[in-house]
Structures are given as structure tokens and as C-alpha cells.
Specification:
Radius of gyration of chain A: 22 Å
CATH topology of chain A: Amidase signature (AS) enzymes
Shape of chain A: globular
Distance between the termini of chain A: 19 Å
Helix content of chain B: 25-40%
Number of domains of chain A: 1
Strand order of the largest sheet of chain A: 1-3-2-4-6-5-10-11-9-7-8
Number of domains of chain B: 2
Number of strands of chain B: 16
Helix content of chain A: 25-40%
Largest sheet of chain A: 11 strands, mixed
CATH architecture of chain A: Alpha-Beta Complex
Order of helices and strands of chain B: HEHHEHEEEEEEEEEHEEEHHHEHE
Oligomer: heterodimer
Largest interface: A-B, 45 and 28 residues
Strand content of chain A: 5-15%
Number of strands of chain A: 11
Shape of chain B: globular
CATH superfamily of chain A: Amidase signature (AS) domain
Number of helices of chain B: 9
Strand content of chain B: 15-25%
Chain lengths: 542, 374
């Protein structure tokens, strides 16, 4: 049985790991070859993928049952959450039926690692069978000729794409209010933003409208919404996942990432989508481990499972401009990590504050180039005109939103003759400094931790007229993109707000290609986090 | 053929530009200073009657006393690789519009370029043939402008670190034009992709875009402004064509656009080392004044060559026209014969057949002297 979805009583403070005798569960980590015999007992953040797999293999439930459970929840929650730009419910039901037929005839071989798992896909990832707009009116109705590599790999693993999730237009924004289509709300409080730009993907997982989802992270677009919506979000190392099929925002920073309601689900997804792709020359050919194999069930953990793990807590992220509730949640998380056996020390990253302006110059510069193709000539919205420049001007003026235009202008300026050295080139130098300071710190520590955002989710409309305040919210995350490092966000606590508190995420940053280690530590952290449940109150009402 | 054309251009330029060249306000018709040989070719008569030609030349010489022309020719060589530079589409000249295209070369959202390594191989071949210094690490950049035949809104090209620089090209001028050996400097050779083509309707009401050619690999070869006469320029173009064919990197067919020359002519008082006020006229208007906002292409890693790779290509090079001419010259052939025989890499001079002949290199070679080797 999939875990019952209940909103547990939320606590507004972080509770330490209980010191009492630990309960014993059956191992859950040996999924690939020998599926676990027993479903995880009620504990923190159970794996939905695992229980779906169990149900299918035991014949307890069919893919159609599971799909209709999610779809009915989607239909009930969607009017208030509005995570999806496009819902492919009919196609999902068809694929579930097809999967059931295959299971019936082919048996267990037909059950891929993600069989029957409903996936939401951020709408800036191309899907052949569904419209892909990037959240932009200029691509309204555009249907790509192919599936993005990450999407293709999910489908090949048996996943069912349930729809396309909302985002800030082309990934530019931190609230999902920048979508050309609709405003998504936070499942924890419908007057708040879900974060962005992958707000739809985060809220969809948070509201259990789908099991897992794909997002993209250019400056924090997976991690900040994961934090705002109380889900797990992973930004892999640059190049770990193919960008082929991801509508480019800033090519040297863009990464396809994933969301899940548990670290285990996120790890499962990464194992499927990671790896070299001949269609993306910047994708890495490093081996892809099975990221699930190091995720040990809590009952098998030693008393100090994080012995020998050195953790640096970034001082610059706990100072001025960061909400006190966020700081105390992260500090509580740090002492939890200490209790688990790790050594937590303060670390300073001198170039930390330089990252934000450098990021906005580089991202805007690349965006100004990447978005040139949306010119109304070959596809997308075209405004007819008598003259070529008018056609370009009107099509783009009409089809692109305010924030996108602003970034195109900034980027065009930064790359213009006479300004290139002062802006683009200088920002690249800063990028090198940021990279070096991370390298230094990661020589001394296995993992660096910080909040994922300076605050929890804020009100819809609160920052729409203050772009600089919105940009400042990216301070926790942009440096990681500049350095190309992997980072995992795991819910770690709450601050006051909404009816049950608003979630806060802990960001863990590692060396290039250390996703396995991040997921292992994140999993232990998550599984030992007692009495905190990150199922939003929205689901208690229905 | 190219020779006649280029002489045509030169004559025209000198006549029309006699007052307009140094930055006065006189408006010149477009395309008389910078023009593409491929387009001139179809409109210019191939031979100009001798008397007119003579008169023109004399008139030009009168006006031009004390001045010299400085000519540069930017050459674009289309590489005959099986697939395009950054995707796996084939390219066949003359195929149905938009029949050899894919999401990548059409600039669809989410697509990424993947470098065809054959392009690098061809570039290295040409760079070696042009005696260039090869950059063991070079990179691609984006050259940005809006035009309907440019699907991505930028062209993938090489800006500040081209694959090769600082070479030279040796050639022999035809005997009938006075002969002589010339060496022209090569500034740079870089790799880039071609754009598509616009097809304008007869009525002028609409234009259509054919993207078959978009993404086809090109080498841009920029020489030093060493040429002073149309004959030198024409021979430079002809030698470039020969080189491309010898190396087998392209077919060099100008009528197909496989070899394109952008000729740049400046005129300055003899002895002056700087150019006068620069005036450039282009055949098409891209986007206002050219600020291409170059920046490094983030979708492609650097191109890193090893010395083994370069050596392997160096060792596989065929005998090139210049080496062939020197060899024939050392064999005692007349310069006319030398040039004729080196003209086409399909023509091989076979000394065994010739050995019966007592006179070497007198007059035109007879059929016996040439054998088509393929």
C-alpha cells in the first residue's frame, strides 16, 4: 500500500533525534535486484517509488489504480495549486493500462525502475507528445518534435508523464509568478508563492499530484522551491544530466534536476536520468553509480552513522538579511548532523557575496543569446508585419514577458562592444574565484551546509515590483551554479506561517560528482528527523 | 574565369569610385566595393571586348596615378563532410528546400550543437596546407545577429582563438600576365557554420526560408592585405580553389556557393601605409551597425588537439599545388606547363610517356603528356 497521506501535527521547532531504543524495520535499500519484502512502516519520508513498485510486483494494486489515485488528488488540488500548464490525464491512464497489460503478460520483467511512477515535467523540458511552452506565451501551443533526454530516460524506465508543470518564463524568476500562463500557489499556504522557477514541479510533488518531478536549476530554481514547498530537491553537478531538450536559459549554468517527497525517490530518479548523452557535448561521461545503493534503512544505521563526516556551515549564509526562523532551523539541523556523528564547523567563503552580481551578468548575457531564436520566424507566435524588423520587434514584444525582456536587455548590454570586459569578462573572473573558494572549502569538508533560501515562502505579489529584492533571494544558491557543484535540499524545519507552519530546507553542497555522498547524508538526515512531517495541510482537508 | 571577373570588378571600382573613395559623401551604389564573386559571376559578361577593356584600363590608370589598390579576399570554403557541422543532417546542393533539416539545425528549443570531428580534420588540413600556426586549444564563439536565415539568432563561429593563424600561400602568376612568384600572408583560418537561404517571391510580397544549408561547415580564410592587382587577387582565389580540391575538403564549386569570396578593395596613395577613411558596402543589411556581441559558445567544449593528431594529418596530406609546381619546375618544364599541369589534381604528369619527347616544355603539352588519373 502506498503510504497514507496524512498531515501530521506540525511542530514549529526542530526536534532532535530520539535517544530511545530504535525500532527495527526491514531493509529498503536493495531495490534493484531483490525488492524489499516489507513495506516501510510509518516513519519519516517513506519512498513512494518503492511502495508503488512493491504494489505492482505483488499485484496488490495495478498501475491504473495508482494512476487514478494520483489523478483524482490532482483534480481536487489543482484548482487551488495550479501546478500544471498541461495535464495529460488521458495519456497517463492509457499508459497505465498498457503497463498493466505488460505486467500481466510479461511479468516482472516489464516493471522498469520507475514503472507506474507518475512524473511531472517542468514545461521548459521538451516533450514530443505534449505542448512545451517554457512558460512563455511566445511558445503557446508549440509541440516539440522530440523528447528531452531526461524525459526519454524516465519514460524508458517506465515512468508515466502526467503533465507539464508551471514555471517562471524560461526559468527566469524565483516565484513562478513570471509564468506567461498562471500563478501557482504554495500547497502549504495558498497565499504564498511556491518559489521558482521550478515552482510547479515543487508544488506538484508537495501536493502529491505526482510522485516525482523534473525541474531545472540555473541559479537555484530547483533548490529554492524545494525549500518553499517542503520537498527534496536535487541540483546535480553541471554535466551530470543531459541538457538536451532543456530550453536553454543560461547554458553554462543550467542543470536538469529532480524533486521527490523523499531522498530515496530523488536518488532513484537521478540514477535514471544521469549519464553521458551524445546529444549534449557538455554532459559528463563519468560513471553513474546506483545512487540508491548507499541509502541504508534507518534501522540498520549505526548509532553514529555520520562518523568521519566533516561538515562546514557557511557563515556568510547565516547573517544579515536571513530570517531568524531560517537560521534557527538550519542551526538545529546542524546539531542534528552533529548528533549523528559528524563534525560541524563554521567555514567562511570570502567570495560568497560576489557571486550574485556575477551570476546575474552571466545568466543574462547567455539568456540574451539563447532567447534570440524566439523570433516568430520558424515556430511560436508570430505577429504579422510589413517589414522584417517590425516582425521581430512585435513578435518578441508580444510574446515575451517583462522579466525576460529585462534580462535580455541586461545581457545584450553586458555583451556589447566596449562593455564586455567590464561586465561579462569580469563576471567570469569572479566565477573563477567563487569556484576556487568552494574548492578550498571542500578540501577541508565533505559537505558544506547553508539554508536553501534566506526566508521561507513569502506572499504572492510581495516582490513582483522589486526585482532586486527577488534577485537577492537567490544569494544562497547562485554560487553553487557558478561553481557547477551538486547540491541537495532536504526539508529540515518550519517557520511560522500558514495554518501549519512553512517549511525550511537545508542545502548540502558537495564536490563535483559527489551526489552519492550528498544523497547518503541527506537520507540519513531525513530518516532520523523525528516528528517532522512534510505533508502539506492541503492534503488533510481532502 | 574568376580572373576575368575580378578584373571586371577592379575596373569598375576605379571608375566609379574616383571621387567617392576617400570618405566624401558621394553615395556609391551598393556592392561595388565589397561584393561576392559568386553573385557577380552570373551577371557579368565573361569577356569584355578588347578595345573597351583597353580603354577602361587606360582611363583607370590615368586616374589612378599615384594610387595603389590594396585587396583582401575573405574566402568561405564549404566543407564536403557527410553531415553538417553540429548535427547529423546530410547536405546535398540542390535538394528540395527544407528537406535536410532537423530540430538542431532549425534552431528548435532545447537543441544543442555537437561538433562533427571531420570539420576539425578538414580545418587542420587546410591550416597545414596554408603553413599556419595551429592553435592546439581553440574554442567556438557565438556571433549574434538577427536574420531569418539564421535559425538560432547566432552563428557558431570562432572569434579570438581561431584554429589557425599566421600562415602564407605561395603561387605563380600566369605567364601571360607577366608571371612571377608571390607569397600572400594568411591572417587566420577559422571554423564556422553556414546560414540558410532566403528565397524571395517574384512579387516581392513574401520571402521563404530554406534551412538546408544552415549548419553546413565552413572554413573562413582571411589573408593579409598583400594583394595589389586584380590578377594577384584572382590567382589567390584560383589557388585557394585548387588547394581545397587537392585536399579533398570541399568541391570548390563557386556556382554552388561551395567557395565564396568576399573581395575587399581599398585604394591609398602609394607609399602610405594606412588606409584612408574606410568605407564598406555590403550586399545585405543585417542588423544596424555590426556589434556581433561575440562570447564563448557555452554549449561546446574547447577544441583540444594533440600533436600526434596534427602529425598524423600532416603525414597524410597529398602533394599540394605549390610543391608540384616546384617539382615540375626542377624537372625543367616551362612555367606555362608547370602552371597548367598543377592546375588540376586529376591531371598527373607522367615522365615515362614524356621521355620520348626531346623538347621539354615547349608549347602546350600534347595529349600524350597528360593522363587523367583518377
Amino acid at each position: 500500500m502506498p503510504p497514507p497521506l496524512q498531515a501530521h501535527r506540525m511542530l514549529l521547532s526542530h526536534r532532535r533525534i530520539s535517544s530511545g531504543p530504535r525500532r527495527r524495520f526491514t531493509a529498503v535499500s536493495s531495490l534493484s535486484s531483490a525488492p524489499a519484502k516489507t513495506v516501510v512502516a510509518p516513519g519519516p519520508a517513506p519512498s513512494s517509488i518503492l511502495s508503488i513498485r512493491e504494489s505492482l510486483l505483488s499485484g496488490e494494486r495495478t498501475a491504473v489504480d495508482i494512476t487514478s489515485e494520483y489523478l483524482s488528488r490532482l483534480r481536487r488540488t489543482e484548482p487551488s495549486v495550479r501546478s500544471f500548464i498541461h495535464v495529460a490525464d488521458a495519456a497517463a491512464e492509457r499508459e497505465a493500462e498498457e503497463l498493466d497489460r505488460r505486467i500481466a503478460s510479461g511479468g516482472k520483467d516489464a516493471v522498469g525502475p520507475l514503472a507506474g511512477v507518475l512524473v511531472g515535467v517542468k514545461d521548459n523540458l521538451c516533450t514530443a507528445a505534449m505542448p512545451s511552452t517554457g512558460g512563455s506565451r511566445i511558445l503557446d501551443g508549440f509541440q516539440p518534435a522530440y523528447d528531452a533526454t531526461a524525459v526519454r530516460r524516465l519514460r524508458e524506465a517506465g515512468a508515466i508523464v502526467v503533465g507539464k508543470t508551471n514555471l517562471d518564463e524560461f526559468g527566469m524568476g524565483s516565484t513562478t509568478e513570471g509564468s506567461g500562463f498562471q500563478v501557482t500557489t504554495n500547497p502549504w499556504d495558498d497565499s504564498c508563492v511556491p518559489g521558482g522557477s521550478s515552482g510547479g514541479s515543487a508544488s506538484a510533488v508537495s501536493a502529491r499530484q505526482c510522485v516525482v518531478s523534473l525541474g531545472s536549476d540555473t541559479g537555484g530554481s530547483v533548490r529554492q522551491p524545494a525549500s518553499f514547498c517542503g520537498v527534496v530537491g536535487l541540483k546535480p553537478t553541471y554535466g551530470r544530466v543531459s541538457r538536451f531538450g532543456l530550453m536553454a536559459y543560461a547554458s553554462s549554468l543550467d542543470v536538469v534536476g529532480c524533486f521527490g517527497s523523499s531522498v530515496f525517490d530523488t536518488a532513484t530518479m537521478l540514477s535514471v536520468i544521469a549519464g553521458h548523452d551524445k546529444m549534449d557535448s557538455t554532459s559528463s561521461s563519468n560513471d553513474v553509480p546506483d545512487y540508491r545503493s548507499d541509502l541504508v534503512s534507518p534501522n540498520l544505521l549505526e548509532s553514529k552513522p555520520l562518523n568521519n563526516v566533516r561538515i562546514g556551515i557557511i557563515q556568510e549564509t547565516l547573517g544579515e538579511g536571513v530570517d531568524t526562523g531560517v537560521i534557527s532551523s538550519v542551526k538545529a539541523a546542524a546539531s542534528h548532523l552533529e548528533q549523528l556523528g559528524s563534525v560541524v564547523e563554521e567555514v567562511t567563503l570570502p567570495s560568497f557575496s560576489l557571486g550574485l552580481p556575477a551570476y546575474y551578468i552571466l545568466a543574462s548575457s547567455e539568456a540574451s543569446s539563447n532567447l534570440s531564436r524566439y523570433d516568430g520566424i520558424r515556430y511560436g507566435k508570430q505577429v504579422p508585419a510589413d517589414e522584417l524588423n517590425e516582425l521581430y520587434g512585435d513578435s518578441r514584444a508580444n510574446g515575451l514577458g517583462h522579466e525576460v525582456k529585462m534580462r535580455i536587455l541586461m545581457g545584450t548590454y553586458a555583451l556589447s562592444a566596449g562593455y564586455y570586459d567590464a561586465y561579462y569578462k569580469r563576471a567570469q573572473q569572479v566565477r573563477t574565484l567563487v569556484k576556487k573558494s568552494f574548492e578550498e572549502a571542500l578540501k577541508r569538508y565533505d559537505v558544506l551546509i547553508s539554508p536553501a533560501a534566506p526566508s521561507a515562502a513569502y506572499k504572492i505579489g510581495e516582490k513582483t515590483n522589486d526585482p532586486l529584492a527577488m534577485y537577492a533571494g537567490d544569494i544562497m544558491t547562485v554560487n553553487v551554479n557558478l561553481a557547477g557543484l551538486p547540491a541537495l535540499v532536504v526539508p529540515c524545519g518550519f517557520v511560522e506561517g500558514g495554518s501549519a507552519g512553512l517549511p525550511v530546507g537545508l542545502q548540502m553542497i558537495g564536490s563535483p560528482f559527489s551526489e552519492g555522498n550528498l544523497l547518503r547524508i541527506g537520507h540519513i538526515f531525513e530518516q532520523t528527523l523525528q516528528d517532522l512531517s512534510f505533508v502539506p495541510p492541503l492534503l488533510a482537508d481532502i | 574565369m574568376a580572373l576575368t571577373l575580378l578584373r571586371g570588378i577592379r575596373t569598375q571600382t576605379l571608375l566609379r569610385a574616383n571621387v567617392g573613395l576617400f570618405g566624401t559623401t558621394q553615395r556609391l551604389p551598393l556592392a561595388h566595393l565589397t561584393t561576392r564573386v559568386e553573385s557577380v559571376q552570373t551577371t557579368e559578361p565573361k569577356t569584355v571586348p578588347k578595345s573597351i577593356q583597353q580603354a577602361t584600363k587606360e582611363a583607370a590608370e590615368q586616374k589612378m596615378q599615384g594610387f595603389e589598390a590594396v585587396i583582401g579576399i575573405e574566402t568561405h570554403v564549404q566543407l564536403s563532410t557527410i553531415t553538417k557541422a553540429f548535427c547529423s543532417c546530410p547536405y546535398d546542393y540542390g535538394s528540395q528546400p527544407n528537406s535536410t533539416v532537423c530540430p538542431t539545425c532549425m534552431g528548435h528549443p532545447g537543441t544543442l550543437p555537437v561538433l562533427n570531428t571531420k570539420v576539425v580534420e578538414c580545418a587542420v588540413k587546410v591550416a597545414l596546407a596554408l603553413n599556419c600556426e595551429i592553435s592546439m586549444t581553440s574554442k567556438f564563439d557565438r556571433k549574434q545577429y538577427f536574420y531569418p536565415d539564421l535559425p538560432k539568432g547566432y552563428q557558431i563561429s570562432q572569434f579570438d582563438i581561431p584554429i589557425a593563424e599566421k600562415g602564407y600561400l605561395d603561387l605563380d602568376l600566369p605567364v601571360e600576365f607577366g608571371g612571377g612568384h608571390r607569397r600572400f600572408g594568411i591572417t587566420r583560418v577559422h571554423m564556422e557554420e553556414d546560414a540558410g537561404k532566403l528565397l524571395h517571391s517574384e512579387s516581392g510580397n513574401y520571402s521563404q526560408v530554406d534551412l538546408n544549408r544552415a549548419g553546413v561547415p565552413l572554413l573562413e580564410i582571411v589573408p593579409e592585405p598583400d594583394m595589389r592587382t586584380g590578377i594577384e587577387a584572382a590567382e589567390y582565389g584560383a589557388e585557394m580553389q585548387r588547394l581545397v580540391r587537392y585536399l579533398g575538403v570541399g568541391n570548390g564549386n563557386m556556382q554552388e556557393g561551395s567557395l565564396r569570396c568576399d573581395v575587399n578593395v581599398s585604394v591609398r596613395p602609394i607609399g602610405q601605409s594606412e588606409f584612408g577613411t574606410k568605407k564598406t558596402f555590403t550586399m545585405r543589411k543585417k542588423e544596424g551597425l555590426a556589434d556581433y556581441r561575440y562570447f564563448p559558445e557555452p554549449d561546446l567544449p574547447e577544441v583540444v588537439l594533440t600533436s600526434e593528431y596534427v602529425d598524423e594529418i600532416r603525414n597524410s596530406l597529398p602533394e599540394l599545388p605549390e610543391a608540384k609546381r616546384r617539382r615540375y619546375e626542377n624537372m625543367g618544364l616551362s612555367m606555362q606547363d608547370v602552371i597548367f599541369l598543377a592546375n588540376d589534381d586529376n591531371i598527373k604528369y607522367l615522365p615515362t610517356i614524356r621521355s620520348n619527347s626531346s623538347s621539354i616544355g615547349l608549347g602546350k603539352p600534347s595529349c600524350r603528356d597528360i593522363s587523367l588519373a583518377r
